Amino acid sequence: MGIRNKTFNELNSINTVVKRKKALDMMNSLLKIFTALLVIVFVLYPFLSVFGKALYSDGRINFSEFLFLKGEFYLVKNSILSATITALLSTIFALALGLMTFFVSERQKKAIMFILLLTMVSPPFIGSLTYIELFGRNGFITRDILKLSINPYGLWGIVSVQTLGFTSLNAVLLIGYLDSFDKTMIEAAKSLKASTTSILLDVVIPLMKPAIAVCFLLSFIRSMADFSSPMIIGGAFNTLATEAYLSIIAKGNSPRASAISVILFIPSIIVFIIYGHYLKEQQSASKNLRQTQAKMKKSGLYHLVKILALFFILWLIIQYLAIFTSAFTDKYKGEVYFTLDNIRDSLPHIRDSFVRSIIYSIIAGVFSSLIGLVLSYYSYIMKGKYMKFIDFISNMPYIVPGTFFGLGYIFAFNKSPLKLTGTALIVILNLIFRQLPMSIRTIQSSMTQIERATLNSAKDLGAHNLYILKDMVFPMTYSGLFLSFTNAFISSMTTIGSIIFLVYPSRKLATFVLFDLVSSGKYKIASVLSCIIIIVCLSVSLLSYRIFNRSSKNVSQY
Amino acid sequence: MFLNIKNLTKKYNNIEAVNKVSFSAQEKEIICILGPSGCGKTTILQSIGGFIKIDGGEIILDGKNIENLEPEDREIATVFQSYGLFPHKTVIENIIYGLKFRRYKKKDAIEEGKRMLEVLNLKGYENKRVTQLSGGEQQRVALGRALIVKPKLLLLDEPFSNLDTKLRVSMRGELLRIREVFNITMLFVTHDQEDAFSIADRIIVMNKGQIEQIDTARNIYLNPKTEFVLNFIGSANVDNGYFVRPEAIKISEDGEEARVVGKTFKGSFIEYIIEYKNNRYKMIRLNNEEEYEINDKIYIEMEMREI
Known about the structure:
The complex is a heterodimer.
Chain A: H1 2-55, E1 56-57, E2 60-61, H2 68-71, H3 73-100, H4 106-120, H5 126-135, H6 140-145, H7 155-179, H8 184-191, H9 196-225, H10 228-233, H11 240-249, H12 254-285, H13 301-328, E3 329-332, E4 335-338, H14 341-381, H15 385-394, H16 396-399, H17 402-412, H18 424-447, H19 452-460, H20 465-476, H21 478-494, H22 510-519, H23 523-556
Antiparallel strand pairs in A: 1-2, 3-4
Chain B: E1 3-12, E2 15-25, E3 30-34, H1 41-49, E4 56-61, E5 64-65, E6 76-79, H2 91-96, H3 106-119, H4 135-147, E7 153-157, H5 165-182, E8 185-190, H6 193-199, E9 202-207, E10 210-215, H7 217-222, H8 227-232, E11 237-239, E12 242-244, E13 250-265, E14 269-276, E15 279-286, E16 297-301, E17 305-306
Parallel strand pairs in B: 3-8, 3-9, 6-7, 7-8
Antiparallel strand pairs in B: 1-2, 1-4, 4-5, 9-10, 11-12, 12-17, 13-14, 13-16, 14-15
């Protein structure tokens, strides 16, 4: 009897172990399928919907929507022209800023980085706002100082505003690249008696080529896709992006908007492929762990670099000074005086929209990071075949212009069973999946720090895949998750393109209110709103930078 | 046999990394797989641990076929070359992690963990972060974490490669002591023959995915079965399928004449290059024996043995 009892107990315990394992397996599969479905429904489906709308009508495939290209080819020309000039200028300025880091002290470099960060947390059309205030018909510089009355609108307005906006990201990319640059090469060149000019032209810049190409291409597609700057200061200068926007907002012609968006998508996908190619090269270029400061003589080409960099920094400083002063001053009979009236006037505009923006952005930050974590776990760590495909699809929102992604949501979710148009949910979902590619990148780069042996050890000790996700991968990617949350939060706070068609008029977000204010000429109130958005985003990113630094110290030491 | 490996095969891109490898181990035995990098030794370890899928063969542990089980379902624990400690957990949390899946109450697990730390001479380290430990301490945590789940077989991948020479020697002793305490069978992989000779009961010499010889250290050194084994283990003078180890060349008044052409002081011994019948041989002598200079005539005796 005793023996029988024991066997029974043993059987029983084996049974519960097997049951437990089955339950975990089930949960594991469900989680995987759920994540994959999310990406298919909220990324792939809207993406295909735009193509459907553009190419499919009257029950067959036709290209009639693309016929506008014949009559309105100037749109394509304008887009390419402004994008090329913008990309060129913003790459040149970024290069100057990047090279400048060789010549400045650590403290000056930090100051430069802070100013660049400032522009990266600003709403996108803030440049347009200050441009009008400084160079417009009633502009402070053009009228009050130079006594000119020129028309600031058009190509050069767009180019200067976009250059100011895009240079910062480029510069941050290039500075990051130069940080990992093997400085001993410079020392070697110096010891061979090379001048500063030759070191820069023969060694540094040739090695930076892939990074420079990435900057140029990124700026090019960002410029192509940007509709807000041309809308505000383009005047009669129309581009594909503005035309797509107007087709929906003014004409309600969604097939036309889709066709234009598809055209805008073509350069993006080409650039993305080249970008991927260059990025690989860039990563394998040179990795130097030894941090040395290589100082070069301040001569020759240095002077040109310095002039360009200083010019740009000065321009940025003026821009932010202009916004802050315009938020706190007013003019009466030509006299400028300090006032808080603008802030008071802005309150009704801020109240709801601002809180809503922050809540939406927090939700977007949290969920894009969590989905990014689970997706990366299955595709990057577990190397699931199907999940690799899902991972690829989830990158699409990064490639397509914002308006494209927004249009996709309208077409995909305007009928049951997934009728979401007009709800807050569609906006939040759009924000989440728009940020997902960046989140995945950030999280996967922190996953590279996790050793395979660590995960194998956990598995070896009996941990089920779900436990490995919960006990190992999740805590070890904290720093990546923080960074991903911050990036997604800031992008969501400052974005407009992808959600402009989705937001219900009574439920506006802060950037929309700002866009309306700028468009309708209420520059003072717009300045106040810009300041608040900048302050919120800046605080969040500085706060997370501190936490990130602390948590990454704990993990990467090992 | 306690562990039985039969015709284990693993291919990468159709190239056999491990080709029909068979061997076995008794309970409590320490087996070492020795070979140059790329010979497939780590692949064998990973196959037994379950981290890679094998393309053929059987793995039988304690009478049960386990080749199709997931790593978490095999009664095997592994100590990885880089230890694979959990950097975000403390020493005790690392040690008891495996008990979480063996229905231990947290309190009992901590008790068990503390006992393990005592056995490993890590008492008082409970709440340290593993990142604060030295290499040898990290290694012991990795061992403790693997042993606490009472595996039937312990796998060690290059266990001493991250330790300096002194620590290496003491960890070898530690491993032998652990075998006595836990009565555990061990299979470890190394490219260092001193590791293998110091602790293994039997050594498997591998080359290009195949086993060259399985035997005790003594037999492998004295009776190498292939030229690869001969050259990989120690050094040897080889001539037409015959060999003689450098220390087997004896000085003898009745010997034949040879001439010293090279001499290097190596610490406890001196290595000579001698010329004998137009061939050059390596010969070693302890440093307290009679010393010779270059161009000295000496008389030697040696027996060339067939490989």
